Amino acid sequence: MGLEDGRIPADTAARADATFVVHATWAPMRTPGMMARVEAGLVLADSGLACDTFNIVCRARLGGPDGIQRCRDAFAHFRDVRRPFSWWVGPADEPPSLGAMLESIGLVRAEAEEAMAKRLGELPGLHPEEVTGLEVLRVHTAAQLESWATVTASNWTPPDLGVNSFYRQTAAALLAPDSPQWLYLGLLDGTPVATAEATVHDRTVMLFNVATGAEYRGRGIGSRMTWQPLREAAAAGCTLGVLQAASAGVRVYRRLGFTTFGEITEYKPKGALA
């Protein structure tokens, strides 16, 4: 799938990639025991945890003759430290045969989501319905971050305890005033029920972890958790919002004006590395 009707900029895929790199590497680069390597051809982040949510390879530009070897080297890094990881392939990645290259070295396609985007100049005319009792807070304290991580982890089946470990270890980086990762916690009558993350980079905001506890879905909470970070990012100068949408969320994002510009695919090793 390509750009639709000029409703989003031609450089949307590249801007999404650059913002995803910030999401994957900002905290690991500033946290003892973690690392990130940002190179022109490839980006690798290693949290030191046995959790493929935070061990990531992305933004591949591997069209040269050494491309397949670069793929093998990234795989070898995680094989040698015996940690699981995910390789994310997006619309701007090169070469077009990257997925086949990854499969040839032992990775398998795990899941795919729609890459969606929206110009933020349209936001003033959008006002999702209010949800009675819902308060959306920007996370500024360690206690709020702990609640945020717990709600996020609960959306995995079974709950992913590595999520709590990651956010405890990276709290200093994420709560720093200059952090480009803005975390939002949704409280329904005082109870933490929803999360969102907005990573901001170069006039672009990318949303992650927009999630609502299963028993609270269907009330419009997801729309509010999407809209508020976008509104605040627009006020800070961002002109483009991007996200990757699972099938369950596509309808919500389309109602908010997002359009699809491609697919983001996650690849994982065939067998356990940990």
**Element-by-element helix/strand order:** HEEEHEHEEHHHEEEHEHE
Largest beta sheet: what is the strand line-up?
Answer: 1-2-3-4-11-5-10-9-8-7-6
Helix-strand makeup class: alpha+beta
- Shape-level CATH architecture of the largest domain: 3-Layer(aba) Sandwich
Number of strands: 11
- Tell me the count of domains: 2
CATH topology of the largest domain: Aminopeptidase
Largest sheet properties: 11 strands, mixed
Helix content: 25-40%
Low-confidence runs (pLDDT<50, min 5 residues)? 1-5
CATH class categorisation of the largest domain:
Alpha Beta
Distance between the termini: 36 Å
Oligomer: single chain
Shape: globular
Query: What is the radius of gyration computed over CA atoms, rounded to a whole number of angstroms?
Result: 18 Å
Structure write-up:
This protein is of the alpha+beta class and 274 residues long. It folds into two domains: 12-113 and 264-269, Aminopeptidase, CATH 3.40.630; 119-263, 3-Layer(aba) Sandwich (Aminopeptidase), CATH 3.40.630.30. Helices cover 31% and strands 28% of the residues. It is built from eight helices and eleven strands. It has helices spanning 12-25, 67-81, 98-104, 142-153, 161-169, 171-174, 221-235, 247-255; strands at residues 35-38, 43-46, 56-58, 86-89, 107-119, 134-138, 181-188, 191-201, 204-212, 240-245, 259-269. The chain has an eleven-stranded mixed sheet with strand order 1-2-3-4-11-5-10-9-8-7-6, with helices on both faces. A hairpin with a 2-residue loop joins strand 8 and strand 9 (204-212). Helix 4 (142-153) runs antiparallel to helix 5 (161-169).
